[in-house]
Amino acid sequence: MTDPERPRPQYGEYATPEEQRSAIRQPAPSAGPGPGAPGAPVPPLVEGTLLPRGHRPPPRPTTSVARPSRTADRIITLALLAYGLVTVASAVPQLWHFAAFASSWMDLAGIDGTFTNTAEGDLWGRIGVAVFIVGWLVTAVLSWRALARGRLGWWIPIVGAIVTFVIVSVCLTVPLLSDPAIVAHFGR
Fold this sequence. Notes:
Largest sheet: none
Shape: rod-shaped
Number of strands: 0
Strand content: under 5%
Structural class: mainly alpha
Number of helices: 6
Helix content: 55-70%
Protein backbone atom coordinates (compact mmCIF):
# COMPACT_ATOMS: atom_id res chain seq x y z
CA MET A 1 0.00 0.00 0.00
CA THR A 2 2.90 2.34 0.08
CA ASP A 3 2.71 4.27 -3.11
CA PRO A 4 5.32 6.99 -3.65
CA GLU A 5 2.72 9.27 -5.32
CA ARG A 6 0.16 8.92 -2.59
CA PRO A 7 0.40 11.51 0.21
CA ARG A 8 0.89 10.38 3.75
CA PRO A 9 -2.53 9.87 5.43
CA GLN A 10 -3.75 12.56 7.79
CA TYR A 11 -6.69 12.61 10.18
CA GLY A 12 -7.38 8.85 9.89
CA GLU A 13 -8.81 9.04 6.37
CA TYR A 14 -7.26 5.73 5.33
CA ALA A 15 -8.22 3.93 8.50
CA THR A 16 -10.61 1.02 8.22
CA PRO A 17 -14.09 1.42 9.78
CA GLU A 18 -13.05 -0.92 12.63
CA GLU A 19 -9.96 1.20 13.36
CA GLN A 20 -12.06 4.35 13.30
CA ARG A 21 -14.67 2.87 15.68
CA SER A 22 -12.02 1.67 18.09
CA ALA A 23 -10.38 5.11 18.05
CA ILE A 24 -13.67 6.84 18.87
CA ARG A 25 -14.88 3.96 21.10
CA GLN A 26 -18.05 3.07 19.22
CA PRO A 27 -19.12 -0.56 18.81
CA ALA A 28 -19.55 -2.17 15.44
CA PRO A 29 -23.20 -2.15 14.29
CA SER A 30 -23.55 -5.95 14.58
CA ALA A 31 -21.40 -6.43 17.64
CA GLY A 32 -22.96 -7.33 20.98
CA PRO A 33 -21.83 -5.96 24.31
CA GLY A 34 -18.15 -5.51 24.11
CA PRO A 35 -15.42 -3.11 25.06
CA GLY A 36 -17.17 -0.14 23.40
CA ALA A 37 -20.78 -0.94 24.36
CA PRO A 38 -22.77 1.33 26.64
CA GLY A 39 -22.36 0.28 30.24
CA ALA A 40 -19.11 -1.51 29.54
CA PRO A 41 -16.01 -0.10 31.18
CA VAL A 42 -14.05 2.21 28.94
CA PRO A 43 -10.31 1.87 29.20
CA PRO A 44 -8.63 5.11 30.23
CA LEU A 45 -6.92 7.18 27.58
CA VAL A 46 -3.20 6.94 27.61
CA GLU A 47 -1.45 10.28 27.45
CA GLY A 48 -0.43 10.92 23.85
CA THR A 49 -3.18 8.80 22.26
CA LEU A 50 -4.20 10.28 18.93
CA LEU A 51 -7.88 10.56 18.15
CA PRO A 52 -9.41 11.34 14.75
CA ARG A 53 -9.87 15.04 14.02
CA GLY A 54 -12.97 16.50 15.61
CA HIS A 55 -13.09 13.93 18.41
CA ARG A 56 -12.19 14.84 21.93
CA PRO A 57 -11.44 12.60 24.86
CA PRO A 58 -14.23 12.19 27.40
CA PRO A 59 -14.21 14.86 30.12
CA ARG A 60 -12.42 13.97 33.29
CA PRO A 61 -14.54 14.11 36.43
CA THR A 62 -13.82 17.12 38.57
CA THR A 63 -14.11 17.05 42.33
CA SER A 64 -14.25 20.78 42.99
CA VAL A 65 -13.97 24.06 41.20
CA ALA A 66 -10.81 25.93 42.06
CA ARG A 67 -11.46 29.54 42.97
CA PRO A 68 -8.86 32.23 42.71
CA SER A 69 -7.24 33.28 45.94
CA ARG A 70 -8.52 36.58 47.24
CA THR A 71 -5.97 37.14 49.96
CA ALA A 72 -5.67 40.88 49.36
CA ASP A 73 -9.46 41.28 49.46
CA ARG A 74 -9.64 39.40 52.76
CA ILE A 75 -6.87 41.50 54.30
CA ILE A 76 -8.43 44.79 53.17
CA THR A 77 -11.91 43.74 54.31
CA LEU A 78 -10.68 42.65 57.74
CA ALA A 79 -8.58 45.81 58.11
CA LEU A 80 -11.60 47.99 57.29
CA LEU A 81 -13.75 46.04 59.76
CA ALA A 82 -11.09 46.45 62.45
CA TYR A 83 -10.86 50.18 61.78
CA GLY A 84 -14.65 50.43 61.97
CA LEU A 85 -14.67 48.56 65.27
CA VAL A 86 -12.09 50.96 66.73
CA THR A 87 -14.15 53.91 65.49
CA VAL A 88 -17.35 52.55 67.03
CA ALA A 89 -15.60 51.70 70.30
CA SER A 90 -14.20 55.23 70.59
CA ALA A 91 -17.49 56.92 69.62
CA VAL A 92 -19.71 55.00 72.06
CA PRO A 93 -18.47 56.70 75.28
CA GLN A 94 -18.62 60.14 73.68
CA LEU A 95 -22.17 59.72 72.44
CA TRP A 96 -23.37 58.03 75.63
CA HIS A 97 -22.66 61.29 77.47
CA PHE A 98 -24.02 63.56 74.78
CA ALA A 99 -23.95 66.79 76.79
CA ALA A 100 -20.15 66.61 77.13
CA PHE A 101 -19.85 65.79 73.43
CA ALA A 102 -22.12 68.70 72.47
CA SER A 103 -20.20 71.15 74.70
CA SER A 104 -16.90 70.09 73.10
CA TRP A 105 -18.44 70.42 69.65
CA MET A 106 -19.78 73.90 70.47
CA ASP A 107 -16.34 75.03 71.73
CA LEU A 108 -14.70 73.65 68.57
CA ALA A 109 -17.27 75.36 66.35
CA GLY A 110 -16.82 78.68 68.19
CA ILE A 111 -20.37 78.83 69.53
CA ASP A 112 -20.76 80.83 72.74
CA GLY A 113 -23.00 79.33 75.39
CA THR A 114 -23.58 75.96 76.99
CA PHE A 115 -25.55 72.99 75.77
CA THR A 116 -28.83 72.89 77.68
CA ASN A 117 -30.84 70.31 75.73
CA THR A 118 -29.38 67.47 77.80
CA ALA A 119 -32.41 65.15 78.07
CA GLU A 120 -33.04 65.08 74.33
CA GLY A 121 -29.30 64.97 73.67
CA ASP A 122 -28.82 61.90 75.86
CA LEU A 123 -31.74 60.15 74.16
CA TRP A 124 -30.47 60.85 70.63
CA GLY A 125 -26.88 60.11 71.64
CA ARG A 126 -27.91 56.65 72.85
CA ILE A 127 -29.89 56.09 69.68
CA GLY A 128 -26.70 57.02 67.81
CA VAL A 129 -24.76 54.47 69.89
CA ALA A 130 -27.30 51.77 68.99
CA VAL A 131 -27.11 52.70 65.29
CA PHE A 132 -23.30 52.58 65.41
CA ILE A 133 -23.26 49.12 67.02
CA VAL A 134 -26.01 47.63 64.82
CA GLY A 135 -24.45 49.18 61.70
CA TRP A 136 -21.07 47.65 62.47
CA LEU A 137 -22.58 44.23 63.26
CA VAL A 138 -24.63 44.15 60.03
CA THR A 139 -21.57 45.24 58.06
CA ALA A 140 -19.41 42.55 59.69
CA VAL A 141 -21.96 39.79 59.01
CA LEU A 142 -22.39 40.81 55.36
CA SER A 143 -18.62 41.01 54.92
CA TRP A 144 -18.04 37.56 56.43
CA ARG A 145 -20.75 36.05 54.23
CA ALA A 146 -19.22 37.57 51.11
CA LEU A 147 -15.76 36.32 52.03
CA ALA A 148 -17.08 32.84 52.85
CA ARG A 149 -18.71 32.63 49.42
CA GLY A 150 -15.51 33.70 47.68
CA ARG A 151 -16.91 37.07 46.58
CA LEU A 152 -15.27 40.46 46.85
CA GLY A 153 -16.00 42.01 50.21
CA TRP A 154 -13.78 45.10 50.53
CA TRP A 155 -16.57 47.44 49.45
CA ILE A 156 -19.06 46.25 52.10
CA PRO A 157 -17.32 47.94 55.09
CA ILE A 158 -17.03 51.16 53.10
CA VAL A 159 -20.73 51.21 52.17
CA GLY A 160 -21.68 50.13 55.70
CA ALA A 161 -19.62 52.99 57.19
CA ILE A 162 -21.18 55.56 54.87
CA VAL A 163 -24.75 54.43 55.60
CA THR A 164 -24.10 54.22 59.35
CA PHE A 165 -22.44 57.65 59.54
CA VAL A 166 -25.28 59.29 57.62
CA ILE A 167 -27.87 57.84 60.01
CA VAL A 168 -25.82 58.72 63.11
CA SER A 169 -25.26 62.24 61.79
CA VAL A 170 -29.01 62.73 61.49
CA CYS A 171 -29.44 61.40 65.06
CA LEU A 172 -26.85 63.88 66.36
CA THR A 173 -28.17 66.81 64.38
CA VAL A 174 -31.64 66.61 65.93
CA PRO A 175 -30.65 67.56 69.51
CA LEU A 176 -27.95 69.98 68.37
CA LEU A 177 -30.29 72.01 66.20
CA SER A 178 -32.94 72.16 68.91
CA ASP A 179 -30.59 73.69 71.50
CA PRO A 180 -31.28 77.44 72.06
CA ALA A 181 -27.60 78.48 72.06
CA ILE A 182 -26.89 76.74 68.74
CA VAL A 183 -30.10 78.05 67.14
CA ALA A 184 -29.16 81.60 68.28
CA HIS A 185 -25.66 81.22 66.85
CA PHE A 186 -26.90 80.10 63.42
CA GLY A 187 -29.73 82.64 63.51
CA ARG A 188 -27.27 85.55 63.46
